[in-house]
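Suppose you are handed a protein chain with no further information: no name, no annotation, nothing but its sequence. What can you learn? This example shows the usual starting point.
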Amino acid sequence: MEEKKEGKIEVVRVTEFRDGESIFESRGFSRVKVTKDGKARALEIPIKSTGISELVESFVRNAPKPPEKKFLAKPDDEVGKEMGLTANKWVFLPDLNDEDYKKRGQEHDQRMGNAILLKGLDVILKDKEGNVVEDEDEKINIFKRMGMSTDHFQQVINDIQALTRWSEKETESFLA
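A reasonable first move is to predict its three-dimensional structure. Written in structure tokens, the prediction is:
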């Protein structure tokens, strides 16, 4: 592999791949803000990307599907125009406003976020007695009891995903 610097991003030219090497493994840190006694500080949490894309793909494949509603499409309405209708026709359309579907979607998204968090953290989580916690639901409950906010949660998730995804700023400076 050849290495060279272009801007702030190191470029490594790959000339071969060898089974067993972890060339695509990405590690870094998520920094979340906490404030104690009026003083702000950042917690630096080790994170990794290994297996995240496969995890997300699995969740996307298993996302809840909206129920379908029967709808009379007419040639002059949006659906009829899109379908190129010349006469009224009964069609089935997904009902994205169905309350049960929206609830299942929110629960699915929460489970996916929890899974990304747990898979992407590169730290050991222990209970009060110092025992390693293996149960995923218990891990999430511990984070909640520790005061992890929605903002903390989202920051860590975003940082895990950013380990392998170019930001706009990186893309601009890299291509400039």
